[in-house]
């Protein structure tokens, strides 16, 4: 149990040092048994040295594997940031073209760049807000997108190095100048917020991610909302995928109005007591402010109607249907 919990102990290297220390402590406490033995007196010290050497050589295995995968497909890039803490890695990679992406545990954060801006625009169109909390939406663009809706954005990320990642993604700009940023805290800011937008880490079927799309999670985030506030979940799966349907059912159990919008190949679920019906005036005001933005973002907001569809009320499955296989019955935070 102690060894399994070591990755949560702190930054990179600490878990390996602690594991080797436990081995050394065990060898020291059993010295009376193995020291007099002609074979064990040589095997035990040699095993400790081999364990230390293997730990040293494999300290950057995930980083090397991630770099080799990226360079094999997109040669010429470089890793701008790689941080490990609490059993998670957070990285920023820059392609040869200059485009940057964030990575969690070696996997690219799908909802970055253009999609992060689209998440912010759709959420604030669905529920005009003065304050918005963005969770796991690790991109400086969300602050500028929220400002176009006259909303004050707050960013929360459980990784302690999220400020460094934001600085790398924003070409070295000071993250403190963007807005309120909470990094590394076990619990999100109290609020209340008019809108809470949660980007579910990929893959959404992993136990840690699936716990964020349960009814318990929806009930938890509702405590961070102001009266009539909006909760949005961004998933990397299609709207008809099982993970998206389970998340929608969880939101429908807690909110009376749930809608779905497309995020490229992903899904944005919007939930509130009442979602905005008329977006024409807001879209008309917003489009001139996006003339320098990407074609994909302009295309997503091109029509006069609201770019989402309401979901019909579906039968609510039993509570156990939201809990992923193998996940402990714990709160999401």
Explain how this protein is built.
This protein is α/β, with parallel strands linked by helices and 333 residues long. It is 36% helix and 21% strand. The protein has helices at residues 2-5, 14-29, 31-34, 40-57, 61-73, 114-126, 141-147, 162-169, 207-210, 215-222, 242-254, 280-286, 295-300; strands at residues 78-85, 88-94, 100-104, 107-108, 131-135, 152-157, 181-183, 193-199, 225-235, 257-263, 266-272, 309-310. Strand 10 (257-263) and strand 11 (266-272) form a beta hairpin. The longest helix is centred in the first third of the chain and has 18 residues, at 40-57. The two termini are 21 Å apart. Mean pLDDT is 77; it is low at 1-12 and 318-333.
Features:
single chain; 333 residues; alpha/beta; eight-stranded mixed beta sheet; four-stranded antiparallel beta sheet; 36% helix
Q: Low-confidence segments, ≥5 residues, pLDDT <50?
A: 1-12, 318-333
- The secondary-structure element order is HHHHHEEEEHEHEHEEHHEHEEHHE
The total of helices stands at 13
Strand pairing plus helix content: what structural class? alpha/beta
Please give the share of residues in helix.
25-40%
Shape by Cα distribution: elongated
Binned strand content: 15-25%
Number of strands: 12
Termini gap = 21 Å
Strand order across the biggest sheet?
Answer: 7-6-5-8-9-11-10-12
Task: Please tell me how large the radius of gyration is.
Answer: 23 Å
Mean pLDDT across every amino acid position: 77
Give a short account of the largest sheet.
8 strands, mixed
